[in-house]
Amino acid sequence: MTTKSGKKKIPIRPRCIHGPCLLFSRFRKGARIRYYACSAYRDRKDCSFYWPADKAFPLDKARQIRRMAAGKNRASRFDSNRLSEIRMLNAKSRAFCFDCCCLVLPKETDAHNSHRLRKRITNRQLDRPSSWLPPIWNRHGEAQYWFTDETTHFLAKTVNKFSVDGVLCIGTPRLHELLHIDGKKRSFLLDIDERYEQFFKPSDFARFNLFACYFFTQKGKRHCKQFLESCQRLVIVIDPPFGGLAKVIGKTLQTVMRMHKRAHQSPNVACDLLWMFPYFLERKVTAIMPRLSMLDYQVEYDNHVHFNSASNRRPSPIRIFTSLDPGSVPLPVHEGKYRFCNICKRFVAAENRHCQICHSCTSKNGRPYVHCFHCGKCVKATNIHCEACSTCHRKGSCAAEDDTQDSH
């Protein structure tokens, strides 16, 4: 597409009030349909934006949506003055309205009389809102799963071990809360949950859409930049939705890392990463960021039945992908789930045995692996080598045998 002057015209990326949209595709009646939709919410009930990929997005519509988003964000009920006013009150004068999702001042109580209220909000509860706020759950958008206390303290201990100036927490409110209470490391929280605006100062929190690398307010973006400027040595801890595309998450992380690098002219600038993601997506993570290594630590969540050892016999599949040297990150051996491998010089899962042929501890899921001489690598102990397809898999799950049976 070109202008009248002959210059190439850059197409405008469609956007909704939650930021720039992502390009999706689906098949209908054998035809592939490409379209733009909200990057934060996949459910049309939460955001109905839809734009065909083959249709140019008008500049005036983009401006209109920007104005709508700016107006909505300026209309926020929460500001730092209100937070100061709340903190000056004693616990019995504080309340939280679950219907309106806001802290309630004494003078506002009458307007919330018929609502669901939590009264007597203590200082500890103000400091740790994720310990009592109901999680937002939507399988197509926000799905809040909060770290267990054990995982939160492990992450805090890990970042405190290294000489960093600050921690950028992306989607990790519990870690941000603990670091604030502990006071050993400065931290800044980026999260799409706007409820946190009323619990943290603008210098500590900004509402952020991870999948579009989009700050909902310029004020939030400015405060985040100021935080990055104050941290020559930074560590980013991110816990994204596991259904999100690793490629999109990686692109946002690379953008944030560039923001941090541009803020400093020193050769000593450094930015490390701790990324929570399922172990079975390791290839996708390392394809985007080859310098990351997977730790054997099993990340657990209070409110997820499958990612919590207290409610599930299987270990959590969530791991930490990090740019830190794996040998420098001690895992909690006192829990009985981890050990130190003297050959690999790193901590691994207790059942992750060292393979003398592969020269490493090869288990990915925390359970024993065995070496397959046909495949030339270690595989799950429950797998068997199949002559039909020349790979190892569970008994009865051979695709080659299925194809053979279908042909008869």
From TrEMBL:
Keywords: Cytoplasm, Methyltransferase, Transferase
Predominant location: cytoplasm
Pfam families xref list: N6-adenineMlase
A GO cellular component entry from the record: cytoplasm
One GO MF term: rRNA (adenine-N6-)-methyltransferase activity
InterPro entries: Mlase_EEF1AKMT1/ZCCHC4 (IPR041370), ZCCHC4 (IPR039846)
Localization terms from the record: Cytoplasm
Protein name: CTCHY-type domain-containing protein
